[in-house]
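Bug: token stream looks shifted between consecutive jobs. Job 1:
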Amino acid sequence: MSVNRCMYLFSRLQRHIRTRTTSTTAGTCHASSGSGFLHKQRQAGSVVCSIHVSSNSSSQKPPDTSLFVPISLKTDCSGDGSVGLELTQPLHKSELLKVLNRFYKKKEMQKMASDHGLDARLFHQAFISFRKFVLEVTSLPADLHIILSDICSGAGHVDDIYPYFMRHAKIIFPMLDCMDDLRKISDLRVPANWYPEARAIQRKVIFHAGPTNSGKTYHAIQRYLAAKSGVYCGPLKLLAHEIFEKSNNAGVPCDLVTGEERTFMDSDGRASGHVACTIEMCSVNTPYEVAVIDEIQMIRDPSRGWAWTRALLGLCAEEIHVCGEPAAIDFIRELMYTTGEEMEVNTYQRLTPFKILDQAVESLDNLRPGDCIVCFSKNDIYSISRQIEARGLECAVIYGSLPPGTKLSQAKKFNDPDDPCKILVATDAIGMGLNLSIKRIIFNSLIKPNVNEKGEKQMETISTSQALQISGRAGRYASKFTEGEGTTMHRDDLPVLKEILSHSVDPIETAGLHPTAEQIEMFAYHLPDATLSNLVDIFVSLSQVDGMFFVCNIDDFKFLADMIQHIPLNLRSRYVFCTAPINKKQPFVCTSFLKFARQFSRDEPLTFDWVGRHVSWPLSAPKNIKDLVHLEAVHDVLDLYLWLSYRFMDMFPDTALVRETQQELDDIIQQGVRNITRLIRATDPLQTQGSRGGQAGGNNASASSNHLTNSRGQRAQRGSGEMDSSLASRLVRDGLLTPDLLQQLQKEWSKDQKLEFINQSALDTEPHNNNNKGKRKKKKK
């Protein structure tokens, strides 16, 4: 078939493309000089003609060829032996090099290669590999030897190299030979069709819409409890535990399924009719009468949104009860159009009043019982909790990396009317999963580190949705506080908070998707030599989604894939390991993950004794914050063991012993958190660093919240008050600090220094502070 004939056929297909969204992919078509389009088969030297027509969108994006990694070929292979040499004559490398370089410089060859999938980057890489192969291989294939010999002797044309060059390019870049298949596999435009069981039934969808503390989830759960069978899908283990306990207390047998835990109410291990699970663990094959999907607005979460999409489209339930923000109503209704299912909307109002105060707290001296100070940094939590207890007050502490048992223990302590603890210091972890008796939410800062859809970390002002979710925890229905209040710690933040809350929540416009293990396995079939990280990169690069969806961030997956790439694992096991929910910021957790994978690859079971030696069990109570952080990391490692044990039961056999150990460790961590002020005092360098880090991160701590009453606190305050201009300029340059915020911080630091001078003068008049006075004078010199 000639080039002209192929181009004629291509033009004929254009009408098909416009009307039926089909297109032709030329990446598998290759032309030789004067003979037609070539397609390289697996057998060396075979050349045939082929044209592929795919059903991809006419607007398909070109592949990101920077992700295409060439395969290294051995140059010591014998090829066709010495057949080519016997038929022609020996080839001189100097002549070969001249011929090959002439071929490389021909614009016509580059243009033809570009038309068939080799852009400038790939053409260059393929030529380097081809030249190395020709010059270094022990014995060239007979057909290539003959062609090169003819060109060197003047009997052939340099263009004749092209089909053999393309044959080589398709060997080192196998994706060129199957681009059409890869595009089909990564076509994510109709995810509703992935769940034939759900499409086989007509489901009724009920959206329970309302703000925090409006009773929307309560009404969905009442229907769940009344059903013959049901599944609850929540974003957190704590929420799944809450529904699990509520269901069983109501006389409805309910099982618990999370990534790390399976609890069956039946003594024989038979499944109950009801199950409460984290949303990633819900089964899309089991039929239910009622399904409840909580916090549906998280369908747009850059990392986890795929789990809500999967549950909403895939659950086999007669009734799907969806709970979440009103901002998701229109999008979920539109998504249900793709499945042909109608949606009923029930709207709820907040059960208790809530108001934003007109005055900021400004000083920790103005705290009241029922206050919750919300921070977005663990270091700020350490700093503020220490300052509160320095004033003779007790406080509870809750942040994300604490074990669930410790969070519940601290929540119980704060809620107990007979406990002297009346203040809570927490991160936004309180936004979901914990019932707390809070009167007033106090934002210590409105700046929070976020990860965008590209996986980049950035400092941003909290969104309206986040502000509503957190502030809505105040004045919970049925608590002792019948009205909720919200304010800020710093005066300048209050108008910003009011402005944030004055806006409506941004409507949800997209839902997350994620490549499945089956899709990656099909990719690996076509690209057997690619690494898992590279497979996922290419998948995302080629993936096609319509305007309602996006591919979730895969940076954590790739991080783990690269970490264990050198370990020999089959693809399915490697994929499962890489989906493990671990905190990659914890070096000890990452090291443990690596050791688990290495032990697994040796086919050696990970026993309790092995794990105990690895974590140095038993562990003692923490003596400082560093010890507490390490204990939290060990708890995460045991979580990882339990998570893997439900995927590889034979290799992680001691689940019960590890769970008992984890419960003991939880008690030790609770003991440490109860004495967190003592731990902070024992970690003076960390405390000073935390104070600086909190300000650099944009938390604009004021003099009143950073000024400690003891001499150690004064030293920390002095350290944070000294403004390093190079650090400030670097933070502004990196976007972590705005010029306006920098000016605000400088003003506050100057105020701090004045207050410090006054306090120092007062302390200098006390006889027992003479030594401190001498030290200060010596420092000033």
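Job 2, same session, no restart:
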Amino acid sequence: MHQHMQVPPLEGRGRCNYVNLPVINGDRLKTAKSLVDKAIKEKKVFSVQGPYPVIRAGLRARGWVERRLPRPSVPRPRRHDLETEATDEGDSSDDDDFGEEVERDDEADDLYDLMSRLVRNETAYFYWTTRRDSVDCRSLRKDQMTNHYAKAGSFTTKVGLCMSLRNLQWFDAADPDTFFPRCYRLGAEDDKHAFIEDFRRTACTSLLMYVLEKYAGDSEWERTREVHDAKSHGLSKPRKQHAKQRVGSSIIDNALHVCEEYLNSLEHCDIDMTLETTPTLSEQQWKVFLQNYYLVIHKGLTIEGCEDYVERCKCMLEQMRCFCPQMETDGLCNIWIIKPGAKSRGRGIMCMNKLDEIMSLVDADHGIMNDSKWVVQKYLERPLLVHDTKFDVRQWFLVTDWNPLTVWFYRECYLRFSTQPYSTHTLDSSVHLCNNSIQKHFQPSPDRNPSLPAECMWSCSQFRSWLAASGRDDLWEGVVVPGMQKAVIQTLLTAQDSVEPRKASFELYGADFMLGRDLRPWLLEINASPTMAPSTGVTARLCPAVQEDTLRVVLDRQCDRNTHTGGFQLIYKQAAVEIPQYVGVNLLVEGTSIRRPRAPVYKPLIQSHPDPLSKSSSHRSSLISSHCISGKENQSEKAKKAWTTLSSRKVTLEKSLIFQPKLRKRPHRLVLPSTCCVLPNPAELHPQKLSLTHTQPDHPPTNRTRSKLPSLYHPTPSLDVINLRPRQAFPSGRYKHEMHTVNISYPVLRMQKYLSLNHRRAMDTFTEREGPKSS
């Protein structure tokens, strides 16, 4: 027996933990370096987030090297919280496997891991992620590719899809009610009132259809109810108790009247009605009507004398079908489906057929009113059934560009079946929801047709074989496929202005459809990041194929435009549209900045006559030479007459003269017109010089210097109001000059009055000194 002795650690040294590193083969390292160098040179470094072994294998086969993304250190959110956090916009995504902990290392050796270590500091040029917010599209370079578009929630969320398709009339001459069930937002007040009106109107049409089918020889309603009663224990006795009760025929009259008023409103016959007009039925009458409707439809009560209304009901329904394309799928039970706005895989979905229950749900949950992310949609009560079982269709399509819009449609799809036989007499999710994530929790019904698959999935080829057995194989290529393609294109057109059109991006979507009895497809929702989990034999074959074909379209086709694209076919390519100079509401205004306006130059109000003086000083003649013509007697005579005429009038400047301070930043040279007067010498306008020849005023004149004189560039914040009055004491025609100073607060330059005043002062000064020249 061996004894294990514990050796104490050496003093002064810490205990060390050694990591056993793997031995790296030299040849393997050389091969990895050569492959990495080639990939870096060709910009073939990719990053994948999530369990996508097909994408990894396809990229590696094309010479790409993976740069592994760091694994999140925070704990993963719970399963039912993953959807709201899937993207920054809360769009729908039905990928069942969000975490990477379920991924199995499929490499046979450590070569790929070694290559990933060598490119850990390199730039990735291809991103494939499950979550849109994992990569910021706005920070990527033009040569970096990613599998998501920013702001695609306008059609990948239930609320966004509901709102986008309402704008279809602006993009295409089509009616969304022909391929998308009526949908309303419970959180919006206007949508809530519109839903209440739609629920009541649908109850009226359903009642008319009930009368027509019950008494026109169509026993489908009674047959399905009897089958349901036979399978559901304890429900037949209550119906027998109500068998003798009857509902009055007034319920049919009210239904006919409501439908008639609706048709009149569509043809604008109610345009002259006022707001005070009494509605067809009051709130209390509507409450009684719906209670009787529930008794007839859900409890089996009969209506008195309804046989007499068969023809009127038939005629009214024919008129309503012209305006209501969904009447054939509305059914009789008036079932509506309530969906959370940002969840998928059937989580949180409820089916209800009573208005008070739906409104109580809205009133109880304040979150519905706050975020407006819950929608209520009309349930398709009469879908196409395969062996009395409901199903829906998952169809893939790929968008490689938004400007121009380029859409690729996948040729293959698959069907998802319910585990229980279809019936509108029950609202259980196992009957009405076909999502594989929900149906996998239920056991197939013992009454289920054995021809249906145990995995609850069919490929489209299997469905076409079933159609061929009933002689309707041509309807797949003639009705189903064109209808799905048209619905996808029209939906994308309505959302084109909301999605950011990045050239190096692409995205794979999964659309869910239901087929009516006439095989017309009805769009239910569009999912981002559709599931690629091989949960059944059908998805194990189709999901890897669609991933590989996606790489062919987005990678191989860039090198060779004629390359094979697998199952994808190009169904729509829009003409290129010029990108506007703005994104969203951020507008760009083009123009020049507003400059400070220059002072306007006006012509003087009083046209001055030329001076008659021919003999004057050289300085004065230089100022007024443009207005003096010496040696002509006729001009002096005209000047005398002008002064004589002026002396007999009273001239008063009633308006104040206002000057603007000088702006030293950018002086402007004034260009005076030829008809304007000449500026006098500022030195001769000094108040002290004027006082030598004039009588002193009552108040002393203001002491000014030359710099303080008003001029074009040195205006003063005060003004002189000058009154020219005839002076009787001076026979020579001289005038008394009176000056009054008025302070102003907001000076503005009025050049025409200032120039006229200066000219008058010059003339007055000249007259006082020289006197009027005699002829």
